[in-house]
Every structure is written in structure tokens, then in C-alpha cells.
Amino acid sequence: MTSRLSVRKLITVICESCLEETITTAAKEIGASGYTVSDARGSGAHGLRDGSWPENANIRIEILCDEVIATRILDLILDTYYSHYTLVTFVTDVGVLRPEKFQHRAPSHER
Amino acid sequence: MTSRLSVRKLITVICESCLEETITTAAKEIGASGYTVSDARGSGAHGLRDGSWPENANIRIEILCDEVIATRILDLILDTYYSHYTLVTFVTDVGVLRPEKFQHRAPSHER
Amino acid sequence: MTSRLSVRKLITVICESCLEETITTAAKEIGASGYTVSDARGSGAHGLRDGSWPENANIRIEILCDEVIATRILDLILDTYYSHYTLVTFVTDVGVLRPEKFQHRAPSHER
Amino acid sequence: MSDPVILFFILGVIAGLSRSDLKIPGVLYESLSIFLLLAIGLKGGVALAQNNPGELVAPIVVVTLTAMVVPILAFLIASYGGRYGRADAGALAAHYGSVSVVTFAVASSYLTRLSVPFEGFMSVFLVILEIPGLLIGVALARWSAGNTRWAALMHEIVTGKSIVLLVGGLIIGYVSGEAGLSSITPVFFTLFKGLLAIFLLEMGLVTAGRIADLKKSGAFLITFGVVMPLISASIGIVTASLIDLSVGGATLLATLFASASYIAAPAAIRMAVPEANPSLSIGASLGITFPFNITIGIPLYYAASQWLLGASI
Amino acid sequence: MSDPVILFFILGVIAGLSRSDLKIPGVLYESLSIFLLLAIGLKGGVALAQNNPGELVAPIVVVTLTAMVVPILAFLIASYGGRYGRADAGALAAHYGSVSVVTFAVASSYLTRLSVPFEGFMSVFLVILEIPGLLIGVALARWSAGNTRWAALMHEIVTGKSIVLLVGGLIIGYVSGEAGLSSITPVFFTLFKGLLAIFLLEMGLVTAGRIADLKKSGAFLITFGVVMPLISASIGIVTASLIDLSVGGATLLATLFASASYIAAPAAIRMAVPEANPSLSIGASLGITFPFNITIGIPLYYAASQWLLGASI
Amino acid sequence: MSDPVILFFILGVIAGLSRSDLKIPGVLYESLSIFLLLAIGLKGGVALAQNNPGELVAPIVVVTLTAMVVPILAFLIASYGGRYGRADAGALAAHYGSVSVVTFAVASSYLTRLSVPFEGFMSVFLVILEIPGLLIGVALARWSAGNTRWAALMHEIVTGKSIVLLVGGLIIGYVSGEAGLSSITPVFFTLFKGLLAIFLLEMGLVTAGRIADLKKSGAFLITFGVVMPLISASIGIVTASLIDLSVGGATLLATLFASASYIAAPAAIRMAVPEANPSLSIGASLGITFPFNITIGIPLYYAASQWLLGASI
Ligand SMILES: Nc1ncnc2c1ncn2[C@@H]1O[C@H](COP(=O)(O)O)[C@@H](O)[C@H]1O
Ligand SMILES: Nc1ncnc2c1ncn2[C@@H]1O[C@H](COP(=O)(O)O)[C@@H](O)[C@H]1O
Ligand SMILES: Nc1ncnc2c1ncn2[C@@H]1O[C@H](COP(=O)(O)O)[C@@H](O)[C@H]1O
Ligand code: NA
Ligand code: NA
Ligand code: NA
Which domain holds residue F185? Predict the structure, then answer.
């Protein structure tokens, strides 16, 4: 099976819901081919965020991309959001069937 | 810890919500022991799907299975859905506690 | 990229929604720094749980932690919940940017 | 001609059985149940304000005592008749010992349609009957287990949303009185039956989904789901005559006794008696007893109340 | 002065185009559409109870036959005029051959505002016209493909939520009659226009989101979205005169013929003709035809009906 | 006897503090807030249609100018009194400089209960006061930072859902007039107070959740949350006498000045002043000022308005 699959990065960002548009727009500008968002609630260093009202809801953003773009997204998050926002990020190696779909288009960035 | 865990495959399919019943039924027919679905929204090659109305919503299907069934599910998706539907799929290696739960029942298929 | 990332464990628990408070409270008591919950539906050994009414809904709990706490959480789930509840658990290796955020505080437990 | 709200329930069952893609969003279900609980509480509170609450003390004591017979009977029948283990029998006892708010709403809608008057304070009984049967069921299930966290369980039941909304509504209704509530009655009173209809449509869908469970559970459970409410309703009518309720009040009390919980009880039992199989008790209470009560039971309890108490009015 | 419900639609379009963060939760959209479908069904059922359903058989046959012309014409225009392939032309045929419930609701709101009477059984046509056009569209799309699972498709359409709720409402309304429904009319009849207004606000937001799609699709599709309803409406008015409808009834029938489905059709086509590009047919039906019909079309169809049939009344 | 809508708020607070499992689904919260904003806009629009909008220009200018004092005062008090940094003081200024729609709704419900008349165009002030205070707060917070994207911020505020729905409702109400709206008033006017009650139940739950935050924030913030509205309300009453409002109008204007935003402001501040700690400003505005205003503040502002302006009527 693994022969057919290419490794890509899955970046998952769990953050306050007011960041949805900012982060997804930035990810696309940086070169991500897409993203997926779902609603979430949770608890962490900033206390309980149970989604009982909009200011208090979290989202879960997933971005499938190659390593070049993953690095840029992590940089963006570190530089722009980590200091002031409620935010957790993790990166997973996943296998995808159509690797070209999740690759930056400019050839200079290809691995 | 790793000693207790067995490796299984987690297939994640992000697709338009109208495929929910078709794909989950097919996965069970192919031998998956179960599945989990959650609502999502997103953007990709087919444009923005913000879930503002039902035709425009995505779902996120997760199927935990062994490699034999994972291969069959990927084949099914490649053959039947990739050409005409909005669909993204990725596979992750995960550790599970009760591997027998996520294994195809027919002994001929065991690894 | 990988140089910046530290490996941590992501525990995902898919279970009936009535366990939300019990499991998340227990995870925090055991030492997890946080958790994330989203709504889900699904099917498995206990039949279809389509979320059509509250008794019939699933949730998806994610806990990012180090190996020490992961082991404790898995123990808890095995001992307390597996026998009587609808529950699926899997563990993924993920890379995080700020590893200290997902580490048990008591120094004796550090790896 | 049958009450249209029942037709909505039947529509839901048919849609579910024919595997329609009709789904009532879970959030709508939750929103409607918040509405129904508040509305029933408010209505009861307004009625209570027109009475002397002190006069209710004796009836409440009587009703609470006779109602305790129901879960004990249910436990015995399930244990000896159904050969269920302690956990499952206790879970069934808890479900049948507690009450169903929507069944109560359908019964009062039924009486209103027939212009049969009933005591306004009946919803006080609804609140009071919700808890003891549940606790007895858990006690029976955990008799020898010994590690039940009773304090946590009590807290969970007493602060459970159905009690909070019913009691909250009762108090707000009582404090405000009919005139005080007038600005909010267009929502809580005028819309009641229409929204109950939509709720019953969803209940029909859920009930249809339980029928598969029932096939597995077999004949005993189906019989139990019909016979148990008949027994409880009889106890209810006798109790009604003890405390001098009207025919309408007796019908409602019989319905309360006959009804089985499927909101408060499942949640509480899942935490307190996890080893009980939820599809047994939910299957019986929601798949059999609920449809039985709202279609056949309520008219039956009304006829029986008329026959037994009618002369005295 | 225009109907306020239309103003809500326009507000939604403006909010969408100006990239407001206003969002109608998906669950509210679903809840409102369940409400609207049930309410229209109930209203039709009550009207039907005041008629002799037998007298409707002949008109139903006539309407069904003439309505079949619409998807065939749409297919030919899309194939030869628009040079679309079989799949896309068939998908367009299915959308325009079926009907839009909300357009119908806006038209009856329009007539009620002007105090123009119309036959109460018009919603029976709404139900009946929903299916055949859709099937013809799929048939045209899959002519030679041969592997269509017709049984599954029929099941999906017939048990689809719009049919279930409309037919369910019709039957409940018919069985209960006006008096029987009186307890639920405060929800289903009194709130109808206000909730329709909120639904149209959301439709405006959705429509605004479709405009980007349309830019890509080009001039033919935009023309098609305006010309096709004009053609269908003409067929509708002629049919109305064949079956002797009043001016109001003719306006509604013209609107039904002119309207394009964007609830039942997209879902069915996505499963039956997956190779069709959904943004074409949804873009045309929701981005062009829906706003055209509710703002310009309905008054036009009314004027035409008056002009053609007015003398005979 | 207190307004029942306030009792719903108290019920929510009690349920939240007793850790009940009662939860109002987020979608119901959003749906109700869409409804309330539209309804308030529509009501204001209808009132406006009965006036000459030209006459409002002068009062609007006066009110806008005096209202600007509020955020500046709030900033100074928070900076010097509370020793908060520029960001947090600016965030507090933005919240208290803007207004709370629900507080306004409770105040008009209070006046209606007492049959105190007020100028119908008060909701125009509600719209107008929402924005400037917010902008001043951001300006104060970012004085020297210099990299604020003002254009994006303005777009976000002006197209924010509360402005879109309030202004949209105002225009639709103004264009349609009372007669034109009659078909949708059963939803938007008749249901208003009942749905406001449910919304306040949820606000109570949310408020209870904020109390933990407040414990951490300490005595200054709690004092600020009570004293600041008293100061602003005084400015509001003085302004009301400048523009010759009735006692009812003065009460509403005082309430608007005294109220602190917790819908538009938190969202805007989070994007424009991310370094501000949201639990400070939301904690004060939602945890202290909102409950203070709806329970104690409004009757107080009414009494003060009567005392100051009553003679002149
Ligand atoms: N250890 C964790 N595991 C999973 N999710 C977490 C964890 N810590 C925080 N989160 C999520 O990230 C959000 C923000 O985290 P924080 O900034 O730590 O409050 C929380 O509301 C949770 O949803
Ligand atoms: N690079 C990506 N990362 C995460 N999710 C994606 C990505 N691309 C597409 N998706 C998701 O998959 C759906 C369909 O993708 P597409 O077919 O590319 O439009 C989108 O609506 C997104 O929810
Ligand atoms: N193989 C599987 N893959 C993904 N999710 C599963 C799987 N099996 C079970 N689940 C999820 O876990 C829940 C409980 O599983 P079970 O106890 O097997 O009924 C189901 O309702 C599903 O949501
Ligand atoms: Na009972
Ligand atoms: Na049509
Ligand atoms: Na203010």
C-alpha cells in the first residue's frame, strides 16, 4: 500500500474561532492548496472554551501540504499568532494518493 | 507504551456531505468495522465550501482499519469517487489498544 | 523543519457524548495540559450512533501530551471505560512547536 | 379524528422506517426540548399561583409514596419475568419509575382538545415524580455494588436540565402570575402545540431508529413495554381517587405513572449504572411505551378515569 | 411598495456581496426549510379538505403532461444553444423541470398581499411537479450510460425530505381539516411570512456566494437563467387556461413551471449524474432564476395571467 | 414584581453557578441574536417612518459628540485608576464606548411594562452609538503602535452582523411602514419578549461562566463595572435633556450610554488589539455591567430621568 502513497504534512491548528478567516486566508496566500475547518471546544492554558457563545468557541483547522509550505505556515503562526492568541499547533506525517494536489506550484519550491 | 499498541491505518476522507451515506456504507461492505463522521467546511480546488447551506457543506470521515481494508478503501475511492467528487484523502499510522477490533474478520485477509 | 519540532503523543478518543465531562476532567487530573472536543457521529460494534438525539451522539476528544501522561490516560481508559462504554482510542505521533506546553509539570516524570 | 400532533409522530415513524433522508437537526431537538420544559413549568407555575400551594402538601406526599411502587414492581417484573440481571432490571426500573415530559404534554393536549378540565398544578407532580423513581432504580441496580457516588448522582439529577427548566419555569410562572407573564405567553403558550408537533415528528424519527434494537431484544421486552404502563396507570388512577383529582387530573396522573423517561433517566443511568445495556431500557421506553402511551394509552387512561371517577363529579 | 420578504432577500444579497460576517447557521436554514415545507403542505391539505379531491384528477394529468415539456426544452436549449454535454444539459433539465418551494411561497405571499384569490389546492401541484421533471432530466443525462440505479434513485427522490414533509403536511392537513389544525396554526400559519423572511435573508446570502460561480460560467448560462423561466411560465399559463384556473391560480402555476429546484434536484443529480458540474446548474437556478423569479418574474406572470385570463373571471 | 425576562436571566445564572448540565446550543444563541437585531431594527424603522427623519439630524450630532466622552473617560479611569496598559485600557474603552443591544431591549421592555412612552427612533441611536466608541477605543489602544489596518477594521465593523441586521431592519421597517410589515409582525413583534427571555436565560449561563474570570481580575475591575455605567448614564441623561427627550427616551439613552458591548466589541478588539487580555474587558462588561444594568441600573436611570426631566412633561 505504502508504495502508492506519498508523504505529506498535515498541520492541525486549534485556535479561537475569530481567527478562522485570518489564518485560512494567510495559509492560502502562503501557497496552501486548501484547508478544512471544523468546530471544536476545549480547555488549555487560557481556560475553558466551551463554545457556549461565539467569543468562546474554538475551531480546528487542517492543512495538507508539502514540507516547504508547512515550514512557512509554522513560521507564520510562530511570528504572528503565538504571542497573543489561544492557539495549539501540531504536525503529522500522512500518506496521500495525489501528492501533486498538496504541493506548492512554483517549481523552485519543490523538494 | 508502544509495546501495548499495535499499528493500524487511519483513513481520513474529507468530502462533500452528500457522499456520507454512500462512502460509509461502502466502507462497511468492504470490511471496515466502523467509521466516525464530523461536519466540516473548507476550501480547495473546487472553491469555497463554507457549509452555509447543505449543498455546500463538507464532512470528515475517519476509518480505522488494518492495511488490507485500507487498501480496498483507497482503491474504491480512487476508482469510484475521485473523478467526479470533491474529495481529499489521507492515511495516518496510528497505535491502537485493541487491534482485533480494527481487523478484517476473514482470516484469509490477515497479515 | 523537523529540527524545530518535538515529538509528542496525540490521543484521540471517540466515545458516546455522555462521557465528555468525565473523561476530560479525568485527563486534566492525570496531568494533561488541555484537550479539544468536537461533535461526531458514527457506527461500530455498538451499532449506528447518528446523533439524531443526545443519547445517540458521539464526541471526538483529542489530548496532546507527553508519553508519561499518554500512558496514564490509556491506562485509565482501559481500566475504567473500555468495559462498559462505546469507545475507540488511537494514538498518533505528532510534532509540536512548544513541547513544554504538553509535558507533565512534575520533573520526576520528564523523560 | 385524532390529534394532529400524533399525526406528526406517525409521519416521523413512517419517514424513519422508509429510510427517508429527513433529519431533524440535533440542535432543533435540543432547542425544542428547552422550550417545552420551560413552557410546561411556566404553565404549572401560573396555575399554582391561582391555588394555595399549602393544600398540595398532602397530595404530593401521597403521590410520591404510591409512585415508589412503580420502579419496585418494574424491577421485580424485569428480574423474575425477564430474567435480566440486577443492572438491566434496575435501569428499566429507573426509566419506568421516572416520567416522560412529552407524554405529559401530549396528554394535556388531548384533554384540552376534548375540553376536559384538569387541575393546573399537575405539572408540579411532573417535577416531583421525575426524581424518586430514578433513584430507586439506581439503588436497586447497585444494591450490593457499594461504590456508587450518590452525592455526585444526586447533584447530576437535581441540576439536570429538565429539573432546572421545569422548576425554573414553575417558579417564574408562580412569581409572575398570569398577568405578569402576558408579554411572553405568545411564545410559551400560543406556540406550544405547534412546536410540540415538530418535536413529535422528531420523536417519530428517533422511535423508528429504535425498532431495530427491539428486534434483537425479543418478546419479553415488547410485552413489558405495554404491560408495565398499564399496571402503573392503574396505580395512578387509584392514587388520583385517593387525593380527589378530577377525571382530567386522574388521566394526567395515570399518564405520568405510565410514562417512562427517555431524557433524564438514560443520561443518569449511563453514568451511575454503566454496565446496564442502554438499548434495552431506551428501546422499551422509547420504542414501545412512548408510542403506546400517546396513541392508545392516553385515551384508555381517560376512559378508565371517567369510568372510575366520573360519577363523583 | 415591495413585499418585505423580498427586501430581506435583497438585504442578504447585499450583506453577502459586501463580505459581511453575517452568517445564518446551517441548522437554522434546515429548521426553517422543514417548517416551510410542512406549513405549505398543511395549508394545501386544509384547502384540499374543502374541495372534492376527485375533481383534481383531470387537472393533475394535464399539468403533469405539459410540465414534462419543460425539462425536454431545457435539455435541448442547453445542448444545442449552450453546447453543454449530455450530463450538464441533463442536470440543467432536471433543475428546471422540478420546482422551487420557496419561489412558490413568495408567489403566494405576493398574491395574498394583493388580495388576489387562488385555488387552495395549488400546493398539490407543487408536490406533483417536483418529481417528473427531475426524472426526465436524469434520463436525458444517462440515456446511453445505462448503469443508472433507477430503483435507488426513485427511492431517494420519493423519500427525500421535501416530498416527505410536503406530502405528510398535505395528508395531516387534509385529515385534520381547518378546525382540527386550529391548535397548531399559530405556528404553521401565523408565523409563516415572518419565518419566510428570515429564510429569504439566508437565500440572499447563498445567492451572493453563487455570483462568483456565474462569472466563470459566462453569458449563455445567465441568459438561460432568465429566458428559460419565461418560456416555462408561458407553458404554465397556457396550461392554467386549459384547466380553468383563476388568475391567481394561473400566476402560481406559471411560477411553479418557471421555478427551478435548488433543494431536491442538486442532491439527486449529485448522486445520479456525478459527472455533471454542480456549479453550472446550481449557479443558474440559484444565482439567476431564483432572484429573477421572486423580483421580476412573479409580477410579470401575474400581469400575463391577468391579461390572458382576467376577462374570463 | 420584576419583569419575567429578568427572572430568566437569574435562572440562567443560578443554573450556571450550580454547574447544571443545561446548555443553550450555540446555534440557538446565534439564531436568537439574529432575530433580536432584526426585530429591533424593524421596530425602529417603523417608528422612523412615522417621524420626519430630517428632525433627527441635530439630535444625532449631539448624541454622537457627547457619547465620545464615554470611551475617553473609560480609558483614563482604566489607565490611571486601574493601572492597565494601553492595550487593555483601550479595549475597556471600546467595550464601554459601544453599546449593548440586549440591555437596550431589556430597558424598552421595562418601559413598556410600566406603560412609559418613549421616542420610537431610539433604536437609531442604538445603531449610531455602536461604532464611534469602538473606534476611539482602538485608536487609544494603538496610539503609538502605528500599524493598525484601519480600512480593514472599518470594513469589519461596518459590515459586522449587528450593524448589517440593525441597519437592514431599520431600512426595511422604514420602507415598508407599519402596514407593510403587518404580515411579518407576528414573528418580529409578537414573539419579541418571549424570545428575549430565552436569550437572557443563555446570557445568564454565559455570565455565570465569567465569574471565575472576575475573581482573578480583582476589586478594581468589579468597581469599574459598576461605576463606569453610572458615570456614562449621567452623561446620557444630560444629553437627553439637551435634545429634549421624554422621560422614557432619556431612560433609554442613559441605558445606551451605560451599556457595554459584548458582541461587536470583543470581535473587533480581538483582531485590532490582540495584545489586550479579552477576559478583562469581557469579564467586566458581561460579568458585572450587564447584570448590573438589567437588574439595578435601568430602574435607577428611569428614576433619575423622572427626577431630572419629569417636571418638564
Ligand atoms: N494538551 C492539549 N491537547 C489538546 N488540545 C489542547 C491542549 N491544550 C490546548 N488545547 C486546545 O487549544 C485551545 C487553546 O489552548 P490554550 O492556548 O492552551 O488555552 C484549547 O481551548 C484547546 O481546545
Ligand atoms: N490542502 C488541503 N488541506 C486540507 N484540506 C483540504 C485541502 N484541499 C482540499 N481540502 C478539503 O477538501 C475539500 C475538497 O477539496 P477540493 O476537491 O480540492 O475542492 C475542500 O473543501 C477542503 O475541505
Ligand atoms: N473502525 C472504526 N473507525 C473509525 N471509527 C470507529 C470505528 N469503530 C468505531 N468507531 C467509532 O467509535 C464509536 C464507538 O464504537 P463501537 O464501540 O465499536 O460501537 C462509533 O460510533 C464510531 O464513531
Ligand atoms: Na413512570
Ligand atoms: Na420548473
Ligand atoms: Na456605552
Answer: 4-15+24-308
User: Domains in chain C, please, with CATH?
Assistant: 8-94 (3.30.70.120)
Q: Is B18 within 8 Å of chain E by CB? A: yes
Alpha-carbon distance D30 to E91, whole Å? 37
Using the beta-carbon criterion (under 8 Å), do E274 and B85 form an inter-chain contact?
yes
Which residues are CB-contacts of F282 (< 8 A; sequence separation ≥ 6)?
A: A55, F95, F210, F213, F262, F266
Residue F246: strand, helix, or coil? coil
Other Cβ atoms closer than 10 A to D255: 33
Interface test with A, best of B90, B94, B104 (most A CBs within 10 A): B90
Helix (H, G, I), strand (E, B) or coil at F117: coil
Cell triple for residue B36?
A: 466516525
Sole residue written with cell 453563487: E210
Taking the C-alpha atoms of residue E250 and residue E302, their distance in angstroms, rounded to an integer, is: 8
Check if the beta carbon of residue C77 is closer than 8 Å to that of residue C14. no
Residue D149 in any domain: the answer is yes
ipTM of the complex: 0.94
- The CB density around residue A93, as the number of other CB atoms within 10 Å, is 17
Q: Show the cell assigned to F219.
A: 476589586
Using the mean position of ligand 5's atoms as its centre, give its distance from the Cα of residue E74 in Å: 10
Number of domain units in chain D: 1
Side-chain half-sphere CA neighbours of F16 within 13 A: 23
Q: How far is E215 from chain B (nearest CA, A)?
A: 14
pLDDT in tens, chain C (111 residues): 556 899 999 999 999 999 999 999 999 999 999 999 999 999 999 889 988 888 889 999 999 999 999 999 999 999 888 888 889 999 999 999 888 888 776 543 433
Q: Cell match 483513513: residue?
A: B11
Q: How many CA atoms lie within 13 A of D244 on its CB side?
A: 4
Among D157, D266, D256, CA closest to D206: D266
Taking CA atoms only, the protein residue closest to ligand 1 atom 7 is: C34
Q: What is the pLDDT of residues B58-110, one digit of tens each?
A: 999 999 999 999 999 999 999 888 888 888 999 999 999 888 888 776 543 43
Rounded Cα distance, D203 and D194, in Å = 14
Return the CATH number at E128.
1.20.1530.20
Establish if D103 belongs to a structural domain: yes
For a mutational test of ligand 3's pocket, the pick from B23, B38, B64, i.e. the residue with the most ligand atoms closer than 8 A to its C-beta, is B64
* Residue D188 forms part of a structural domain: yes
Alpha-carbon distance B48 to nearest alpha carbon in chain E (angstroms): 9
Chain A residue with Cα closest to C3: A71
Strands A87-96 and A6-16, bridge-based pairing: antiparallel
Q: Which chains touch D (3 or more CB pairs under 8 A)?
A: C, E, F
Query: Would residue F313 count as lying in a domain?
Result: no
Nearest to B54 among E30, E209, E274 (CB): E30
Which residues keep their CB under 5 angstroms from ion ligand 5?
A: E 99
**Grid cell listed for F289:** 455591567
Q: SS3 sequence, chain E?
A: CCCHHHHHHHHHHHHHHCCCCCCCCHHHHHHHHHHHHHHHHHHHHHHHHCCCHHHHHHHHHHHHHHHCHHHHHHHHHHHHHCCCCHHHHHHHHHHHHCCCHHHHHHHHHHHHHCCCCCCCCHHHHHHHHHCHHHHHHHHHHHCCCCCCCHHHHHHHHHCCHHHHHHHHHHHHHHHHHHHHHCCCHHHHCCCHHHHHHHHHHHHHHHHHHHHHHHHHHCHHHHHHHHHHHHHHHHHHHHHHHHCCCCHHHHHHHHHHHHCCCCCHHHHHHHHHCCCCCHHHHHHHHHHHHHHHHHHHHHHHHHHHHHHHHHHHC
> Cβ–Cβ of E26/B47 closer than 8 Å?
no
Distance (Å, whole) CA C69 – CA C102:
9
pTM score = 0.94
